Amino acid sequence: GMEQPAWNPETGWFYQNVPGTKNRIDVFDPHKLPNPIKSFPVECKGGVLDLTLSGLAVGPKGRLMTVCGSVGGLGLDPRTGKPGKPIPQVGDTDEVWYDPASNSYYFAHTSEGETEISSARGGAVGVVNAATEEFVRDLPFAGAGVHSVAVNPKNGHIFVPVYGKGIYVVTSGK
User: Fold this and answer.
1) Are 124 and 134 in contact (CB under 8 A)?
2) What span, in angstroms and rounded, lies between the C-alpha atoms of 147 and 93?
3) What angle do CA 103, 29, 15 make, to 5 degrees?
4) Is the distance from CB of 37 to CB of 13 less than 8 angstroms?
5) What is the Cα gyration radius of the chain?
6) Where are the beta strands (DSSP E) in the chain?
7) Span 14-54, pLDDT tens digits
């Protein structure tokens, strides 16, 4: 099915991840609904549950960030769909979040080579510098099912639901 959508205030368009055999991001102008005004093909394969395209966030200057299965994170130009360099350290991510206060992307993913969310021994939230689109570090979590993340830009708290454990809150300096 469809994956994470995003609104981009820089372009005034909605973007919708469409995974599968024809991975793409559909672009919608809210004044010209219901059909997309364009589609960006995204080359990627593999990953958890064989999801080939997942997660979508809007970063600085409207730049799009998505995930291409086990290939990793991938930045895209919001007008042309031209991809940047893959970020392999954050592959097999289900959700991407952008925090404007830290100018960082956050990727929730399994770790230790696991591919099944429910059986993974651990997971992590990968942090990527949004200006350079380079990996910074992983925040590790014990337990399976790290696949979503949210960040409060006012206080920097990172919220991470972990399967069978509850919701962890990471605060600055910890």
Assistant:
1) no
2) 7
3) 40
4) yes
5) 15
6) 5-8, 13-18, 24-28, 38-41, 54-58, 64-68, 72-76, 93-99, 104-110, 122-129, 134-142, 150-151, 158-162, 166-170
7) 999 888 778 899 999 999 999 999 999 987 765 554 557 78
Structure tokens at 16: 């919708």
Reported pTM: 0.89
Look up residue 14 and give its two tokens: 């909605």
Contacts 24+ apart (CB under 8 A), 108-115: 108/146, 108/147, 108/148, 108/149, 108/160, 109/146, 109/147, 110/48, 110/144, 110/146, 110/147, 111/138, 111/140, 111/146, 114/144, 115/47, 115/48
Cα(171)–Cα(102) distance, rounded to whole angstroms? 13
Say whether 88 sits in a helix, a strand or coil: helix
Token pair, residue 124, equals: 């992590």
